[in-house]
Write the structure tokens for this entry.
Amino acid sequence: MSLVISANKKQALSVKDQLILATLPAKKRVRILKTLGRQERALARKRISSQTSVNGHKFAARADGRKAKMLKKMTRRLEPYVKSANRLELKHQSTQTGRVAAFQQEGGIERYTAKKAKKRNGIPDYQGPCSRRQAKALAREGYKIRKGKGKGYRRATISEIMKNMTLGQAGLVLRMMRGTRQNPSWNIQVSPRPFLGDTTENVQTELAKLLSQTRG
């Protein structure tokens, strides 16, 4: 993926600043736009550090409930390139990283397989405690346990399920309750987490500052 900024009135500059920029030698224009690109990269890194999107909102939480920071590697090898001395492109040197970054930026549906899950997360410990995500799913399905006193059953709480069921047991019971078999593949909805980008006003302000420094 890439952030593209063109030095024109619609996207980045006032008419006055366009004229000033046009009179500069090509090398100076390239230097100014590359500096802007590095500033935009720094902003992207700050957003990832604070886990906030371009609009200032917190990143959507992970689907599995984990709290580890997201997108930590997405600004690695993110470099500013200038084309025709008036078009800035901030993009990844690695095509694969760029694809992943674009997917995280815009969101979408990711096709998962057991093999892919094992590669990313390792082999599951089926004898270990069930995950909170599994417990929530079982609770939603109406999983019940025996009452402590008296006869009959009652709905189990999430904490009770996590305390008393293993990962393997929870997965098996959940499939039985849903009447499904273990799928070789499944879809995961990935929420958009836009970390790269800026408003026209901010870009105009930063470019005007850089032009002012050049004139000075």
User: Anything to note?
Assistant: The beta strands are 2-6, 78-83, 87-92, 108-113, 144-146, 153-155, 185-190.
